[in-house]
Amino acid sequence: MLGPPKMRDLDRPVLVAVESYVPKDHFYRHLHRVLDLSFVRALAADCYASGGRPSIDPIVFFKLELMMFFAGIRSERKLLEQASYNLAMRWYAGYNMDEPLPDHSSLSKIRARLGLPAFRRFFEVVTEQCVTAGLVRGDELIFDATKVRANASMDSLIPRLRLLTEEHLAHLEPPESPATLWEMNDARWDLLEECRLDPARPAAPGYERKSDRFVSTTDPDAVAMSTGREKAALGFHDHYVIDGGKARIILNALVTPADVMENAPMLPLLRRAIFRWRVRPKQVIADTTDGTAENIRELEESGIRAYVPLPDWDQRTPYYGASLFTYDAEHDVYLCPQGAPLRRRKASYRQKKVLYRADAAICNVCPVKTDCTASDHGRQIARPFDAEYLDRVRGYHETEEYQKAMRKRKVWIEPLFGEAKQWHGMRQFRLRGLQKVNMEGLFIAAGQNLKRLLSARGWGRRPWPDGAAGFAGLTGQMRFVMP
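The structure assignment produced for this chain is given below.
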């Protein structure tokens, strides 16, 4: 029979136990069992005064941030709005139905109070649990970086001189204790700690960064970068160091302004990974950008094979490439394709190269001179100081191990960037400022590691709260998502 119409009677109070309304196999119950956040209170203890009004529990802050990560929410205001009526979110945060949730503005203040060290420690604790669970192999490391847009527009750029003038007019009286960025240069400059270029670095001759002349009033740390399209955008580089094991655990994450070359943080990140996680890599996989002579020399001298592509300079010139010239190490000369010697002329220690030049009289009468050089002073070849290591890496290119490493890089680290951008908001940073975008980048990396840890502890391929697949099913799905 047709039942009576359902009457709405929703304004009367009822007794509700949140515990009974969250399913036993819910994702947040599994997350609560796997990740013990009790370490957060000890981590944040030094950030609070001994007296005064009690603060919001910092554990609640990290739980809310984790819910924001897994639910794919981009706004803390939206997060608190959903948590107010989502019983599973209330249960994980530890708030009953009659308890008011924190205000969204409190999360920004807590983040500023905790600072970058707290987020770095949070990332390390999650990664430590991955190591303990046996998800890190340690004999192979993969390096790469991706471009991430800043939360700022190109229209916010103004000449840096104008900004300095405005700051000077606003601070005519010098401060009592002038603790400036320059004072930090008394100690050894650490790229991993400062996340930016050394402000005392010498100017590169013949090269000027756009960030040297222009600065964004919205995010002073964001700089112009190429996006592969017609228009440039303000942004950062997000660097990952990935373990070569099946779980693809992120061992290090670092966000730098886009004017820091992608190859600059490679060696500091490698050293931190080795000493922090006690791994002993036998090989490192990276792209052409990281294949600098300095990086390759350090790797090879450390007994680590550098599986990196090297640029083919022969394709960039209409004349004979350097690969057609044979180097005679015993006599320290080059022999051209016609057999004429190119003898050592001088060494440039600034460019770290040795210059070899053929006799002009021989070159000018050579029958293939038009294919070799346009100079009337003889063909010249520059040999890097580290040419021995570069030749060794070129030898790797002929091996099957190198080809396998290049195929592995495409499906190991690039899908991680695609996953972070498609599911976790890393196409554009939400926060502003170098310290804050590093907090955001570290938290996204920690969340990605946590997904692998949760899967290893029994969550399997089941979906996350936002509907994204478990990491075991992501590789094929993300293979075609460009970082």
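Interim note for the steering committee: Residues 112 and 194 are 17 Å apart (CA to CA). The two ends are 58 Å apart (CA to CA).
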